[in-house]
Model the fold of this input.
Amino acid sequence: MKAIPRYLAIIAISGIVISIVLLMNITAPNPTGRRFSSAMPLTTKQGNAQQIGLSAEEILANDLHLPRNEDNNELQCICHSPGDSISPNECRSCFVYVDQVSTFRRPDFVAKTFIAESKNRQNLLYTQSDQVDQISDYASAAQLLRQPLWVYIRVNTTVSNEFQDIVNATGGGIIPYFTVPGYIDPVDDTANKVLAVSIVVLALVVLETWALRRFKNRPAVVSSPSPKPPRMPKQPADPFGKAIRKTDAAEDFVQRSKEKRRQDIDIEDSRDDFV
Done:
């Protein structure tokens, strides 16, 4: 029985630690380490297309700890061939060459180990030819570099399976990432519930352990039996009463002896009368 509270305490502490780690949102298997964005970008009707796209890129730059590839000091491009003439205002350098690219492509983020793109839009459908061409070019470049391509979208964006297949083939993935009004992360929701239950269980175990130790170490109060009434002291011997009692006993003996003797004489007299 003593082991049960101990096991409950271990389970509760484990639940608290795991819940806190999940709530920190730092363990997701993508370059940000997060399951969802650190801030909410602009969404439909909150700005024009450029403003909406820029808000998501800035949040993703912060979460990736990388500069946007649109910055003047970056401008790294996927180019068609080394002989192409490209304005330095468009591309400062070509980090890979892909034949299918017509002139150049400039992803939102270029890191040493991956390529990342932000798509803050309602839909990412395979019927959108411009999106198909762009993501296909990014995927081809990633495969040539043997690096994953990561595409970050809204948590409620509708995505065609064809895009999933193209991006997954690079070793990366399409990540439902940018939060929208009213969104609740299911992992966070579960972690909060587990955390609350674990805290309650641990508190009960600690309280029970404290109560048991307190009452165990408390000196036991033993009720003493009621004292027996004192014996009456023996009356001291009365020598005069004792002498009187002995005299009375002697007189009784003498009287009984006389009566016995008289009875014997009467019996002898009666026998003489029959002779």
